[in-house]
Amino acid sequence: MTAETSQTLDRGLRVLKLLADTDHGLTVTELSRKLGVNRTVVYRLLATLEQHALVRRDLGGRARVGLGVLRLGRQVHPLVREAAMPALRSLADDIGATAHLTLVDGGEALAVAVVEPTWTDYHVAYRPGLRHPLDWGAAGKAILAARRKPMAEPGYTLTRGEPETGACGAAAPLLGVTGIEGSVGVVMLTDCVPERVGPRVVDAAREIAEALR
């Protein structure tokens, strides 16, 4: 902690992060131990966070993330989309294919930003808001690959016939962005993905990750 920071706010944010990392909630005692503070401090933090609907406690006394975080989360996608648009536009026009930024939303892949190429006669229609399972399509599979090898060098995933019949996809995961799990990719109408597309998608993912840090 420095003179310019608030210890109470820091502890409150740490509580939210701890609760976000568990599916079954945490008790006051567990939070006290993890934070290294006494139970009275934890009670006060939880009471304040509950007032803002950021935390809720079940009948057993376990604290969980509250629905109030959804209101904050709704403002994240527009910010992420704005930061990603320059790189997506460059990728779409360079490759001549529809480029997209996909984030994890629950157990699904959610397209939050899509850019179509400006010069092609035809391309795949791919709209923001499209959802699909993480194990279907290059976007989701790239995310799953990064989960399996979190410390690996950036790579890319290729698919055929996913998410649309007759389309091929390439995607690379976003790496090193705290609190965001996602991928950047392209989808195109072709029999196979040209060799240069995979590395180009990796470069775009790296550029977007740097813009989000």
Automatic annotation (TrEMBL):
Pfam families linked: HTH_IclR, IclR_C
Residues annotated as domain HTH iclR-type: 6-67
Keywords of the record: DNA-binding, Transcription, Transcription regulation
Entry-linked SMART domains: HTH_ICLR
Source superkingdom: Bacteria
Family annotation (InterPro entries): ArsR-like_HTH, GAF-like_dom_sf, HTH_MetabolicPath_Reg, Tscrpt_reg_IclR_C, Tscrpt_reg_IclR_N, WH-like_DNA-bd_sf, WH_DNA-bd_sf
CDD domains: HTH_ARSR
PROSITE patterns per the UniProt record, alphabetical: HTH_ICLR (PS51077), ICLR_ED (PS51078)
SUPFAM superfamilies given in the database record: GAF domain-like (SSF55781), Winged helix' DNA-binding domain (SSF46785)
Domain named IclR-ED: residues: 68-213
Name of protein: Helix-turn-helix domain-containing protein
Species annotation: Streptomyces thermoalcalitolerans
